[in-house]
Each structure stands twice: as structure tokens, then as C-alpha cells.
Amino acid sequence: MKFTHFRKGLIHGIPIFLGYLSVSFGFGIMAVKSGLTVFEAFAVSLFNLTSAGQTAGVGIIAAGGSIAEMILAQLTINLRYSLMSLSLSQKLDKSFTLPRRLIASYGITDEIFAVASAQPGTVTPWYMYGIILISTVGWCLGTVLGAAAGSLLPAAVSDALGIMLYGMFIAIIIPPARKQRSVMAVVLLSAAISTLIYFLLPFISSGFSVIICAVAAAVTGAVFFPVDDAPETEREDAV
Amino acid sequence: MSIAVYIAVMAVVTYLIRMIPFTVFRKKIKSRFLKSFLYYIPYAVLSAMTFPAIFFATGSAAAAAAGAVVAIVLAYFGLPLIAVAAAASLAAYVMGLFI
């Protein structure tokens, strides 16, 4: 029984594995360029398992930012996981005891959440372990390959791969922005504030800039375009 | 500041964000404002992280711009994450060859 669920999770995680492998390759390159060692880049990926948070985190490390800045940046950027955790917690099988919840909560990412919440009925601990394991292996393997081989690649190639994570971010925000004017407004506002800060207020670090932009744009969105049932809408988009 | 300290802080904060709602809170959020705010946060975060940083992500602004335009167009037509990310890289690389 355990094995059946575990295997199902592994199989459902294969597309995530492939996606993470290539995206984290870009992260590995970027991390080394920012002054981390291959092992440090691997540790960041293993302990965080999140693209946006890691990218901002490495930026803060490279800039010698404060611990407060790191905490605030991670809180803001990764806050979305609380919503996903909350939503997924309603879908857990009865066998999900506290220790098992403590283990599985490690692996709540956008993609794993999307696949798990698309399952009919409840999800079991071993299903979650399977999907999280294969996804984490892809994420860490790609990071190490990117970090180690990034320096072997010609500069033109590693430069071009550095844009990969941003390409993925664009692929996440554009389709819902196309469907919903409210999301489009939030995306445009956030990009506009970020650009203004970058050029006009360069003393604001990138970590704090993301926090300021995200909070300002999301508050504006919440005031002008309140949503009725956020987790449901999000689940629909994610799947 | 040791890099290990930064990584530990990142890891603990990120884990707590995921773990607390997964284990402790079972009730749904009631506040409409808070729900809306949380709904828009991911899009706002990713947009702020992408712009204008994407234009400085490669060796030249022109190559980066080519990658950004290709990514936006392909994402608009709903291509998968990987296809968009790979095509953005390829576009930046090809543009880089001409500069």
C-alpha cells in the first residue's frame, strides 16, 4: 500500500523533476557567479526548495545584506506557500499524523502543490513523499550541475542560461495576467515600482525592493479587486 | 557574516512558512482583504523580481531583452514553464552572437 502510493508520487513527479533539473541549472550558475561554492549552492537548494526565494536569498548574500533583510525577504516572497499549505491541509488523508505533516510540509512548492491538489479525493503521506523526493532530487542535481559546469561553459552560454529562471517567472505570471485584469494590474504595478526603485532609489537593496513592490502591488490589488475565494481560484489556475 | 548563517536563516524561515499552516491551522482564512492580499502576492513578487532584473541577467541588455520578449510572447500563448524558460535562454544566446 505504502509502496503503491510512493510509486504513484514518484511517477507524478517526473515532469516536475525534468522542469526543476533545467531551471535549477540556471540557479546553480547564478549562485556561483554570486560568490557561493558548489556545496553552498547545493545546500541552499536542498534546504529551501524554492526558486524565487533562493534567487533573492543569494542576491542578499552577495550584497552582504542583513539577517533582518533575509528574514523579511523570505517571508514576503515565500508567503504564498502558507496559502498552499493551508489549502492542501484540507485535503490530507487521515493517516497524516503530526510527524508526517512535519516531513511533508518541507516540500510544498508551486508545482508540487499544483499536482497534489489536482488529485481526486485525499492525498496520502507516501504519495507526498514520492513526489517531493523526485522533485528535490531534480532540483539539487540541476543546481550542482549548473554550479559545477557553469564555469566550464563558454561565457555566452552561461550568460544565456542565467536568464532561465526569469523566463520561468514570466511563464508563471503571464497566463493568469492574460485571463484576469486584476492580476495584470498587480503585475504591471509591481514591475513599474520595481523599475522606479532600481533607477531612482538605488540605495534600496534588491531584497527590500521586492518586499516594497510586492506589498504595495498586492495591497492595491486587494483594495481594488478583492477576490471571493482565493485558494479555489488559484487551484484552478495552477492545474 | 558566514554564508552558512544566511542559508540556515533562509531555510528555517521558509520551512516555518510551509509547516505552520500545514500542521497548526485547520480553519479557513475569513478576512476577504487578507485572502485577496495573499492571492496577489505571488504575482507581485515574481513581477518585481523579474523587472527590471531580467534586463541585466545576461552579458548585454539587447540579448536579455530578446530573451524577455520571447518569454513574454510564448508565455502569453500558454507554453509550459520549461519551454518558455529554454526559449528565453536560446533567444538571449542567439542575440548575443550578433552583438
Q: How would you sum up this structure, described in words?
A:
The complex is a heterodimer of chains A (239) and B (99). Chain A has 239 residues and is mainly α. Chain A has one domain (2-238). In chain A, 78% of the residues lie in helices and 0% in strands. Chain A is globular, with a radius of gyration of 18 Å. Chain A starts with a helix and ends with a helix. With 99 residues, chain B is mostly helical. Chain B has helices at residues 3-23, 32-50, 61-76, 81-97. The radius of gyration of chain B is 19 Å and the shape is extended. The interface between A and B is large, with 106 and 75 residues.
What helical percentage do the residues of chain B reach? over 70%
Q: How far apart are the first and last residues' alpha carbons of chain A, in Å? A: 26 Å
- Fraction in beta strands of chain B: under 5%
Q: Distance N terminus to C terminus of chain B? A: 39 Å
The residue-averaged pLDDT of chain B reads 89
Biggest interface reads: A-B, 106 and 75 residues
Q: From the helix content, strand content and strand pairing of chain A, which structural class follows?
A: mainly alpha
Gist of the model:
By secondary structure, chain A is an all-alpha fold. Chain A has helices spanning 2-12, 14-33, 38-48, 51-62, 67-78, 80-89, 98-104, 110-117, 125-149, 155-161, 164-179, 181-200, 206-224, 230-238.
Tags for this model:
heterodimer, A: 239 residues, disordered C terminus, B: 99 residues, mainly alpha, 74% helix
